[in-house]
Amino acid sequence: MKEFEIAVYGLGVMGSSLAKNLISKGFSTALFGKSQEERESFQAQGKFTVFSTEKALVNSLKRPRVIFLMVTAGNVVDFVIDSLLPLLDEGDILIDGGNSHFKDTQRRCHGLLEKGIQFLGVGVSGGEKGALTGPSMMVGGSKKAWDSCGYILERMAARVGEEYCCSFLGKEGAGHYVKMVHNGIEYAMLQLIADFYSFMKKGLGLSHQEITEIFTRWKHTELNSYLIDITAAVLAKKDGDGEPLVEKIRDFARQKGTGSWTLEEAIARGVYAPTISEAVFSRYFSQDTQLRKEGSQVLQVTIKPITLENYEKKLKDAFYLAMLVSYAQGIALIQKASADYGWEIDLPLAVSLWREGCIIRSELLQDITKALKESDKNILLSQSFGDLGKREQALRQISAKAIEAGVAVSTLLSVISYYDSCRTEKMNVNLVQALRDCFGAHTYERTDREGRFHTDWMEGED
Ligand code: 6PG
């Protein structure tokens, strides 16, 4: 019987695409579909070997066996692992390619290693099309497993020249962590696009057509990125009656949760990520339709018509800085997590994996990778992006105009807050410390002496 090099377990949208990708790269691939429909629909698309029992699948593989799990993240991954375990031998490799929480990956890595099974947690980005033609793949877990089957993953991935957008980033959940942060940045950028759209429409009073043309022109500038590409296409899409389809979509955003996980991690690691935070909360807040409905009638503002000279150039400069700040927040989080969890993630390498294949791919990532190779400081401090001053002025003007016009663009506004926070040498929290000490004797430190101090602030007061 033929011995397959690898198996793909799960033939949903992503599993099917990855399986076809593997086969197109010449890897003999065994497939497993749980339901008959899944198996039949896949077999109808070509000459594939789809097994219906786990035993037959496992027996068809050469050793060490490599099984790529493409099942829904969460408990399902554990169920599938439990059902495969009795069939596997020491040294076999399981790969989880779903959007699993990095802590689950960590737990699975350790649990499986005790049973002699090598485990890889792989963050796969690029959607259905990327999975088929070449995704970005962020790998973590067992180095031994990577050394044994990493070449297969590399061959599946997107490339920049001769470099694969796939690499081993560290032990345990390192790969899934980097993918989670990728998604946090994705949330930030999606919401920034929406906020810039709102500002153009409600602040500057531009027509849908004019806004579509601006995004279309941005495709050929330094803002060149996958998300700008699809924004131009989405805005241009007309409904059957010739009206823009996007205007007919309910303003109620959903999520599968990876953005919220990123925010939870930013809090746990103490990393300031206001743009990711505002983007995550924008999705939650969009669901409070009743408050917004009543608020639009009750809460009055005096909205002044605004004008902004040379607005297209300013919007472009501001958006560039907004993208840079979004990446900066995500990268700072990965850096802190790598230190806290002891993963030793090679930061420029991790970021370089986003240059192709994934959702947040952009031209800017070339310069960011270069900046991180030169220094591990926050990328805003790098000289790789030229003089940020002009862009800062544009962003500040747009932020001020948005406030003046009363347009709700909290994610856009968070960008200038982050920028200003980063350039404030002396913050105002000395006053916070004094107040904490006043009401709770929490003590404070001084700028001119070592130690912790407490003052009776209300001495002599009633
Ligand atoms: C990707 C995407 C993909 C998906 C996320 C976000 O990299 O291919 O990030 O993983 O879009 O799950 O989905 P939500 O917006 O539903 O959380």
Mean pLDDT over the full residue set: 96
Over all CA atoms, what is the radius of gyration? Answer: 25 Å
| Distinct small-molecule ligands in the complex | 6-phosphogluconic acid
Helical stretch tally: 19
Oligomeric composition of the shown chains:
single chain
Named CATH architecture of the largest domain: Orthogonal Bundle
CATH superfamily of the largest domain: N-(1-d-carboxylethyl)-l-norvaline Dehydrogenase, domain 2
CATH fold topology of the largest domain: N-(1-d-carboxylethyl)-l-norvaline Dehydrogenase, domain 2
Total domains, how many?
3
Defining key terms:
binds 6-phosphogluconic acid, single chain, N-(1-d-carboxylethyl)-l-norvaline Dehydrogenase, domain 2, 462 residues, 53% helix, 8-stranded mixed β-sheet
3D architecture notes:
This protein is α/β, with parallel strands linked by helices and 462 residues long. It folds into three domains: 6-172, NAD(P)-binding Rossmann-like Domain (Rossmann fold); 180-422, Orthogonal Bundle (N-(1-d-carboxylethyl)-l-norvaline Dehydrogenase, domain 2), CATH 1.10.1040; 429-462, 6-Phosphogluconate Dehydrogenase, domain 3 (Single alpha-helices involved in coiled-coils or other helix-helix interfaces), CATH 1.20.5. The protein is 53% helix and 9% strand. The protein contains 19 helices and ten strands. The chain has helices at residues 13-24, 36-43, 54-59, 75-84, 102-114, 127-133, 143-156, 174-203, 208-218, 226-236, 258-269, 274-286, 289-298, 311-341, 347-352, 364-374, 389-405, 410-422, 429-440, and strands at residues 6-9, 29-32, 49-51, 66-69, 93-96, 118-125, 136-141, 159-160, 163-164, 166-170. An eight-stranded mixed β-sheet has the order 3-2-1-4-5-6-7-10, sandwiched between helices. Strand 1 (6-9), helix 1 (13-24) and strand 2 form a beta-alpha-beta unit. Helix 12 runs antiparallel to helix 18, helix 14 packs across helix 17 (389-405) and helix 17 crosses helix 18 (410-422). The radius of gyration is 25 Å and the shape is globular. It starts with 5 loop residues before the first strand and ends in a 22-residue tail after the last helix. 43% of the residues are buried. The mean pLDDT is 96.
